[in-house]
Structure formats: structure tokens, C-alpha cells
Amino acid sequence: MTDLEKLIPQDTLVQVAGETIAISPLKVGQLPAFLRVISPVMAQLSQPQINWLALFGERGDDLLNAIGIAVKKPREWVDDLAADDALLLAAKVMEVNADFFTRTVIPKLDGLFSLGKGIQAANTGSTSPSV
Asked: Where are the alpha helices (DSSP H) in 72-128?
């Protein structure tokens, strides 16, 4: 990989449903919709081993919407994919955007979860003993 390729990520080409799909890092315009649908899935996606079948069973609609957004295809197109093609696309989208997820999304979600726990503790009347 050249220095230029490191600076400017290249598309990853995947053969799916008889066409070549170029998977590239998410663009800023894709982020709002993508993050809305992928946020409920992030806990499973941050695991060292992803159980894709369990993930599809629990959060399949969110994941299918995210795939469509990431590959710039309508949800109907994604719905018509063979299961192995959908899994391949999901994995490739995560792979291509792994740096974004590990540096940006997961730390922010961890911070939000911590903040949420603090707010929940405050709302339940949990106080620390005074000295």
C-alpha cells in the first residue's frame, strides 16, 4: 500500500448479486442516517467475535438499513440479497469503516452509556454517604 493509498482510502470491491459493489468509507452526508440505525447494533459489533446470525435475528432491520445506506442502495435491493451476500456486505462495511468506528463511534457511545448510568443513578435517589 502506498502512502497516498493510506491517506486516501481506496474502495473495496465486492461481487454481490451479479454486480460489483464499491464499498468506501462513509461520507459525512451518510452519517446521520447510518448512525441512527447502527447505534442499537454497536454493542454486538464491538465484540471481538461477531455472531452475525444472532445479530440479524435481534437487530436485523437496523443492520439491513445500515447496509443499504453504506452501499448507497435502497432497502428493497438489500432485502432481495441472499443471506451470505448480506453478511458479506455487512462485514465489509464494518471492515472498511473500522477505523471510524473504533476511534469515533464506540468511544462516544461508551461516554453516552456512562453519562446515562450517572443520570439514572441520580434519578433513583442514589447518593453517596456524607462524612
From this structure: 75-79, 83-96, 98-100, 106-123
